[in-house]
């Protein structure tokens, strides 16, 4: 009994029957295929340069749906379909105006403001107000009534000492997501935020804010870290500095859109699904190359690699392009709802939404047993530079699949460069390296291979 | 006896007396200092943009000597000095001309040729000849007499399936370094090589060739991988394709130059030295940002960090900017000769010459015991993403210090992007990421801290 238990345990970890060796060889084949023949870089170029950016509800988003659908048809996946959802339709409108109006030192100072996603507009009358600087949401709350009728300038930096840049982002991003409603509740007219990046440069970063439905909506813009530093310096010498803001953003009624799904049918367990992909929408600046064109193209490339190597999956594999991660998450929710209502069973889902950088591991979210199994596969990936298998996390779009008991997995690329590009006009094809992008694709394909072969319990 | 041996062993690995914890704290302080306050990125900007490229013997190289000397004086290192050496003085001269003269399909085809470093020129008369393609040195040797009076086109690619790009480089680079003499021995007029890179793009890569002193020197140029692919395609349809080459490179008499050295004096063992740095010369295209401005600025930053944190080293620490790594290695040899003749004892030397990318570990070359000690420190660096401590290697400039019994260490950054930029006009400041550069600096400073504190036996 004990011996048979041991055999079961060893077999489940792929240690018996030479599986380790044959799996290593297959994973090497997968990396070789991607590094030698993958069209992923050219596919990403097309998405970035021919389709361009693709905020939910835009013509770019529609074109991206059609491009990825056709791409997967071209690769002759068993099924390619569009899964309908409704998405928010936020439009930036005409270019923002932002300026300091009364600097004793510099006179009028034009700033490069970029409205935050979901922000309302000021309209043609604009907003003029005295500016007041805070370092965080908490500091704004402490200032309380002093904020009334002011424009609040959130100037909290990302912590440069955190090696995990996403942790630093997580701390700093609250001023972007919640800052407007916190300030509005205290009577502020508008907010400006320091861009959420560790870089010191001239690039403003957009990104979504969430208005508290119980609180008045006020306009919100980001400025670059260099302009934030300038504004802060000027404020030190002159407390009554005023700013004029003008922008034409607006939230229009929801529009129909789609998740795009390609599938290889499972030969043994067709109702067990492994989903892999990224989100197809981006912000309306740049080209959404790292965020998240890379993840989408990698998802497609995983299935393409299976076909190229003539691997017939036992489970059904899906490349999924989720729509609307950036400002609503409708695609992720819609996909899980669709899937559950069709009695599908996702055993695992992998999302790549941290950029097309060199992979360092996988994050995960699931049962202890699931995570233990994932970690037991670490040695397959260490030769390719992936060492991090113990960090928590999944992905915004795959989160809702936890209701099916799926192991949620995030591709974890090196994060040092991500926030230079994130949500800016710098997130373009040229910022992505071919080999780094390919290695992410190959790493996910290798993991899908193991998930498909061995399955994944609950 | 056994117990005391155990204590010695444990102490030497920093396990007793809470050393592990206090060392971890100090290493965290070092990373925090660099990630928060390091001027390294601005220093590299200056070296790239104000000094520019700096091939040995050029005015750029002289300016770089003076810039780094002044920078270390500004940081108030205990000693800053120039260590004289003689360097080769190779000049590219006027822009190369390279064209296919008789394509039946395309007529005359202009190519973007870039003479290899150390190449002779053709002079104004140029060289015209039929072209013959080979995939490697070995293939050229097999062709033997068929090469006579031809221009040999070495078109061997870098192997994309090797995760360690430097291994793929090591395999492919022989056609650049030895290809001219191999072809000349068989009667060839000149050579053209496919650029040594994994990228498929329009950028030619230079780099040194070595002429066999017993064989006639012939001119040598690189073309981009895209133009190599074009040339190869045209040759498939037309075997008698001819090429015209013209260039004005020449090797002039040696010139005086310098290694630049900054030092913090050791308080307990002043004659035990730890050297850290990179090479100050670059090629004459681009700005030598990754190769090797990054390594130089990191070396200086290691000593700056010690001063900023008020750490008095027990051993003498040296930031060394070696001159002439690219086409002679005179600086590395001269530095070791100078040091040995002054009865100095280098216990370790760290070279950063694989680009300013995110660090993944350290390579090493030394005695088994030395390497064992280095590997015992791995756990200090794993929290910062450095996992690779078992790869062999040191650095071209520190190699000669092996005669002093020094442990030779190479910073091992992620290598996926390096050969996009290597020896090209693309190796510019903008290709370097601030955080990646800083993390390399901090990693070396952490290692120097341990080497200084615990020493390093032979």
Can you describe this structure?
- The structure is a homodimer of 458-residue chains.
- Chain A is α/β, with parallel strands linked by helices.
- Chain A folds into two domains: 19-89 and 253-454, 3-Layer(aba) Sandwich (Aminopeptidase); 96-251, Glucose Oxidase, domain 1 (3-Layer(bba) Sandwich), CATH 3.50.30.
- The first copy, chain A, is built from 15 helices and 16 strands.
- In chain A, the strands form two sheets. In chain A, strands 1-10-12-11-13-16-14-15 form an eight-stranded mixed beta sheet, with helices on both faces. Chain A has an eight-stranded mixed beta sheet with strand order 3-2-9-5-6-7-8-4, with helices on both faces.
- In chain A, helix 5 (137-143) links the parallel strand 5 and strand 6 (151-154).
- In chain A, helix 2 (19-37) runs antiparallel to helix 15, helix 3 (40-51) packs across helix 10 and helix 10 crosses helix 15.
- Chain A starts with a helix and ends with a helix.
- Residues 7-17 of chain A have low confidence and may be disordered.
């Amino acid at each position: 009994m004990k011996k048979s238990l041991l055999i079961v345990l060893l077999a489940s970890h792929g240690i018996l029957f030479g599986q380790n060796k044959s799996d290593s060889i297959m994973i090497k084949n997968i990396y070789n295929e991607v590094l030698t023949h993958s069209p992923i870089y050219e596919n990403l170029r097309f998405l970035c340069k021919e389709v361009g950016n693709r905020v939910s509800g835009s013509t770019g988003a529609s074109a991206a749906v059609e491009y990825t659908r056709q791409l997967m048809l071209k690769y002759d996946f068993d099924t390619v379909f569009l899964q309908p959802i409704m998405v928010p339709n936020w439009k930036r409108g005409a270019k923002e105006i932002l300026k300091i109006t009364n600097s004793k030192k510099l006179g009028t100072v034009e700033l490069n403001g970029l409205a935050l996603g979901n922000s309302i507009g000021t309209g043609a009358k604009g907003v003029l107000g005295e500016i007041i600087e805070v370092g965080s949401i908490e500091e704004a709350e402490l200032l309380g009534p002093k904020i009334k009728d002011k424009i609040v300038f959130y100037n909290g930096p990302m912590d440069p000492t955190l090696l995990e840049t996403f942790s630093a982002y997580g701390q700093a991003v609250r001023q972007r997501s919640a800052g407007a409603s916190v300030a509005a509740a205290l009577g502020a007219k508008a907010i400006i935020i320091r861009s959420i990046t560790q870089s010191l440069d001239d690039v403003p970063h957009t990104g979504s804010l969430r208005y508290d439905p119980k609180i008045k909506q006020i306009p919100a813009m980001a400025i670059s870290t260099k302009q934030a530093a300038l504004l802060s310096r000027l404020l030190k010498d002159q407390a009554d500095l005023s700013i004029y803001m003008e922008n034409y953003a607006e939230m229009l009624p929801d529009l129909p859109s789609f998740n795009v799904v390609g599938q290889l049918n499972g030969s043994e367990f067709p109702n067990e699904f492994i989903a892999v992909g990224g989100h197809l929408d981006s912000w309306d600046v740049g080209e959404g190359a790292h965020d998240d064109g890379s993840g989408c193209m990698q998802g497609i490339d995983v299935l393409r690699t299976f076909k190229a190597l003539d691997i017939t999956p036992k489970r059904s594999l899906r490349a999924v392009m989720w729509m609307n991660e950036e400002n609503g998450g409708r695609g992720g929710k819609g996909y899980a709802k669709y899937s559950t209502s069709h009695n599908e069973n996702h055993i695992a889902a992998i999302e790549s939404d941290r950029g097309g950088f060199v992979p360092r591991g996988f994050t995960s979210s699931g049962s202890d047993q699931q995570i233990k199994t994932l970690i037991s596969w670490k040695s397959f990936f260490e030769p390719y530079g992936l060492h991090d298998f113990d960090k928590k996390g999944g992905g915004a779009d795959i989160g809702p699949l936890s209701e099916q008991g799926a192991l949620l997995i995030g591709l974890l690329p090196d994060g040092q460069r991500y926030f230079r590009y994130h949500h800016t006009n710098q997130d373009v094809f040229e910022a992505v390296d071919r080999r780094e992008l390919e290695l992410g694709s190959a790493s996910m394909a290798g993991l899908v291979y193991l998930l498909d072969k061995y399955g994944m319990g609950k």
